[in-house]
Amino acid sequence: MGRTPLEPEREHRWVDPRTKPEPPLESAEARLAENEADIVELMALCKAGRIYEVERWIRSGKPLQVRLEGRGPWHRPKTPLKVAIDTGQYDLALLLLCNGYSAEAEPPGTLNLALERRAWNFVDLMLAWGADPEQADPYFILDTYQRTLMDRFWELGVDFSQDNTLASYLSEATRNKPAYGWARRHNSDPKIAYQLALALEDAVSEDREKAACLLLWAGADPRRKVPSLRWGSGVEDDPDDDRQSAIECAVHSGHGHLLRHLKPDPKLDDIDELYTWVSDPVTLRHLAALQPPQDWSVTIVRNINMWSYAWRDSHARECLRQIFEDQCGRLSTLDDEGCRELRRAMLKLGDYDLKWLLRFLGRTNYCDRTIFLELIRTPSMKKRMVRIGLESGQPGRSRRGRAVR
Q1: DSSP for 268-334?
Q2: Could you say which of 86, 104, 136 is where a domain stops?
């Protein structure tokens, strides 16, 4: 039995998608319902792919979508257009859009859905028929791996630096080479340059070597001081944030193996300041090959403190060995308060470790004699020295033939 046509006077003006209509839509205002129940039947027809029934619904003048004004920002209802994207019904989407369905009135998640599904024809269709490109989440745009699409949305006004999305993405997504390439071509933009520096600091902090190399290739500045992407506000000019460069972060975090990529330079960087944070042997070797510090005292004290805080911290001990044996470093400057703090740290060491350390510090070529005598002058230190078999003030001599662990 054939379809009975609607009475002409009740029939709503509609556009046949087979005529290849082009935007913009010239019809009246979008046909919006106040309640989702008003389009339940339309949703069912769309899911079933009953295009002719959807056409009849359109021609009858019934609403096509729900009004979103006044609803919460997290309200993301299922819509006929989402159904079309989910089921791959391009003809259904075109039928709706050219007959009063407002792409602009769609919830933001609809454009993201098309990007996530990599449904490029739906993305083109929605943008052509009035979808707001700024409703697209920059993360979904970057995750398409399509550099031309990234350029298109960037030119349409989408800000990839919003909520530091670009920095968060590039600090981890090492498979997405097109995203790094896009950032490289736009690194002259101040926003992109800042995002690259943020991402590099985070990649170095989390020891992501591959991401750090890609970011350096993309033009990230390893000397630009930025707040932490994870623990800071992420705002470039926030006065409450601590800032550090990627080179400083590598030294502070003990990721010295990344310095060969970051390439610190005595002509550009304060190497003596970096030495105050050295706590791993790779960093120490790299910096020492560039330029020894004017005074090893701060580095020696830092590593003794690190050794006492971290149980069996082999990194700190190896740093001290390198300073004394390989670099001929010397503890030459330390005030009274510094001596008291260092003595407390030394007393936290185990007997074997303390004996190892005192045998270095007891030699004048490794430690100033006045400083050493101040370190061992207290009864508690002298008692420990006797217990580990060292004569007070003569750590080079042992009461027993071998050290007792």
Answers
A1: TS-HHHHHTT--SHHHHHHHHHH---S--HHHHHHHHHHHHHSTT-HHHHHHHHIIIIIS---B---
A2: 136
Banded pLDDT at 18 (limits 50, 70, 90): confident
Type of residue numbered 16: D
28: in domain? yes
Which domain does 56 fall in, by range? 1-136
Say if CB 197 and CB 232 are below 8 A apart.
Answer: no
Q: Are 324 and 364 in contact (CB under 8 A)?
A: no
Distance CA 369, CA 380 (A): 19
Any long-range contacts for 232-236 (C-beta under 8 Å, 24+ apart)?
Answer: 234/163, 234/164, 234/167, 234/198, 236/194
Per-residue pLDDT tens digits for 82-116: 999 999 999 999 999 988 888 888 887 889 999 99
pTM: predicted TM-score of the whole model, two decimal places: 0.84
- Please say which residue of 87, 120, 136 terminates a domain: 136
